[in-house]
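This is your field. Pick holes in the following sequence-structure pair:
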Amino acid sequence: MCDADTRYTGAQTAKIRAIITQAVELVIGISGSTGVIYGIRMLEVLRELGIHTHLIMSEWGAKCIPMETSYTAEQVASLAGTVSGAHNMAASVSSGTHRTGGMIIAPCSMKTLSSIANGYDETLLSRAAGVTIKESRKLVLMARESPLSAIHLENMLKLARLGVVILPPMAEFYTRPGSVSDMVDHGVGKCLDQFGIEHDLYPRWGKGPADSA
């Protein structure tokens, strides 16, 4: 009995492995809204888990990074497996023939959300999201705005009816977070849950102080 890999040539094995990698690749978008730390932490965690990421940063998403964090846009880009410019409409993720496991936009500004809801593919970020929808792949939007206007809510409802997951980074306290980092990890973990990705970013309900009450 021979090893399974010996049935294929080196080129065939490399091709098979490339297909597997593409199938689990997650597209990560960072748009121009407060909360870019969610996208940054998402990239860090997925890298630790060995999941290939394809990063798209909007112009203002990149500008928000040094405003809100100690990172530079270049440092954030280095966390991703692949990076495509927001105006590179020829990038692989602009086509449905490029297989991915879905997309997360963290944070998702109301401008980006509106462009997705109305099919206005002005940038690669909204184009890749539109491709995710049309290919029936999972799209998670960490919508970031407060308060929400009727326009925002109508756009969210329109997308939710198409199966898009609207997942604002809500603060939670049942885990008794001890830092901002704990709260960020909770938001990131909630996104990863949508893709069935195992993690230990926060304690699950039923595994904490409430059990002893």
In short: The mean pLDDT is 89.
